Amino acid sequence: MTRQRLDDVDKAIVERLSRDARTANRKIAHDLGVTEGTVRARIKRMQEEKLIRITAVTNIDRFRDAALAYIWIEVERSHQTQAVAEALTEVPELGFVGVMLGRSDILAITMVRSTEHLAEFVHNNISGVEGVRRTQSTLGVNFIKHDYRMARIVS
Amino acid sequence: MNIQSAKTTGNSDLITLDDIDHAIIDLLRADGRLPYRALARELELTEATVRSRVKRLEESGTMRVVAVTDIEAAGYQMLLAIGVQIEDRSPSEVAKDLAKIPEIFSVNVVVGTHDVEILVVAEDLDALNALQAKVLSTVPGIRRLTASLALDVLKNQPDWVPFHD
Questions:
Q1: Which has the least CB within 10 A, A2, A29, A85, A115?
Q2: CB B108 within 8 A of CB A138
Q3: Which domain holds residue B139?
Q4: Which residues in chain B (79-108) have CB-CB distances under 8 A to chain A?
Q5: ipTM attached to this prediction
Q6: Are residues B50 and B83 in the same domain?
Q7: Is residue B154 part of a domain?
Q8: Ordered mean pLDDT values, 10 residues apiece, chain A (155 residues)
Q9: Containing structural domain, residue A78
Q10: pTM here?
């Protein structure tokens, strides 16, 4: 599943958009010395091929008393891993769901307000998913960095 | 427990969000390039109102509209979740050092078996080896790394992120 790489013009456009994606095509074109049509077409192609996604992100600092929680999930039988992970992608509160090798079968990441909230979230949304054997959670106390410009674009 | 998150710099005033702000954020989450005209039509507001609302959300450090690049398209084939055990140094200080490394795209001080959890990308096995040997192993205070390799990332769209600049 190797995806097409970005060329230099693509990268220059993405670099601009990763700082402010509402910058006008005209301005980007002017700065890069290409036509506005080129910029428009490149952005359209990169979006269609799921190389980039243009989206709003909100600042976690706005949400007081919010902590990041890593939920490590072990499944009953290895063959259930994919199905459990797919079911978890439907949980809107989860920002990350990955099938893992080592430490656990699946890693899911979410934001919670407290340890009580974490326990309740896991109980209501994860423990009950068919195939989940047990979970172990790690609660974040200080969210130092998350580079939102990097993600796996799946939908 | 004292839960806190990384402080942002700049004018990160806490503004109160109403339903219109939330509706704008939702629409821009779905399509960050949606023109002001389309936003205005969708919300039955004037274009000027929508523009000033977006501006307020951006300038208060509440929301940003950005391009997110696919990890694979950027040339990274591997993603790992690594638990870091620390000795003789404060986890926050080690975390700040780790945050300076571009391949480490997420850094969290945690409570549990490990002291810091990081998410790391690498182009390939050689690049990962170089990262471990030349970068990670030189950060003072790291006692042990426990890694887990992502075989398949089904979802990676966190809406909640710290703003840094």
A1: A2
A2: no
A3: 78-149
A4: 79, 81, 83, 92, 95-96, 98-99, 102, 104-108
A5: 0.83
A6: no
A7: no
A8: 74 92 94 96 92 85 74 96 96 92 94 89 95 94 80 65
A9: 60-139
A10: 0.81
